[in-house]
Protein: Sugar ABC transporter ATP-binding protein
Amino acid sequence: MAMLEIQNVDKVYRSRGKAPVHAVRALDMAVKKGEIVALLGSSGCGKTSTLRMIAGFESVTSGAIALSQRRIDELPPAKRKVAMAFEGYSLYPPLTVRENIAFALKAQQLSRSEISRRVEAIARLVEIEDILDSFPRAISGGQQQRVSLARALVRDADLYLLDEPMGQLEPQLRAVLRGRIKGLLAERGMTAIFVTHDQTEASALADRIAVMEDGVLQQFASEKELKNRPANLFVASFIGEPPMNLLETEVAAADGGFRLSVGSDIAFQIPGDTLDHAARQALAQTKRVRIGIRPQKVAVGTGDVRVRVVSNQWLGDQSHVAGECAGHLLIAVTPSRIAARPGDVIPFALEPRHLHIFGADGACIRHAEGG
Ligand SMILES: Nc1ncnc2c1ncn2[C@@H]1O[C@H](COP(=O)(O)OP(=O)(O)OP(=O)(O)O)[C@@H](O)[C@H]1O
Structure:
């Protein structure tokens, strides 16, 4: 059963003299108990608005939010059993770091020794033991961020919301804290949603990733599923490094399947038996589709697509080779060193089974075999 259920939620900001901003559209999302979820998307896509509506710092324009089978969207924040760490920290300036963290526990009527034990434990976890008696104005932005994180995680709550929880920290500390926070959440079976625009962070921490764009949830799935079975062009190009190669192709029925061609230089035969009924129908009704192939699936040195090398970089454990063909740039990633210089013409192999096919509306018509 879902721990958090967001049903058909919309958020529209209206301010006088300005056009309304539709920040979140028809959002449906169910989060399981103990699940760690990342809200991933570019700036302005509606991540923070979603988090603030769940926490109660922003009203929902329409729709409903339920937590532990209780409808919460009409409740004041303090009654929701939600703990949130803010992007802007919002620490109380007149209280020390220790008092800021302990303050969150006051309502829970714990003994002084229990409060002190919990504060010390969480401070150790995020490495702020040495500043517990400092005031917020006397510590760095990165330290303030960790205090805000500690203040949220120290509480007992049904749901933890973390807005860019490690955005201010240097990469090494970030990686260490990520591991520890994941450990803490898992050990206590805590349910958490965190906002990030960092794919690595989302993959490292989350069980499932909700990809948002323009106020719309594009796909909510594991990292593997997002990579192997992207629901649409947006997810296909947003997830994965370097991004998926995308080509516009013309569609023609051929040999019981379809021939997808890019001018006269590149063509793929898609056998009919690799397509389900809906995919066959979609291809029969359209003249053009977009195809996508991951750089890791493009083989170099074999195949019949001839590319002119634009760049060839060895990154220590893999080569990134960019080549131009018929006005298109194709990127290949291979685990071996490639002896090719810019200007050389070399073959790339793009196999039909590795192609994702997207329709005019961007929705995926067929996924690559095995991802
Ligand atoms: N209080 C507000 N009043 C008016 N518009 C707002 C308000 N808060 C957010 N918006 C707008 O709503 C849209 C979504 O903003 P939101 O902060 O939810 O996005 P985000 O994905 O969290 O972005 P970021 O990663 O930059 O924080 C943006 O266009 C933003 O300008």
About this structure: The first strand starts at residue 2 and ends at 13. The chain has two domains: 2-237, 238-366. The chain has nine helices and 20 strands.
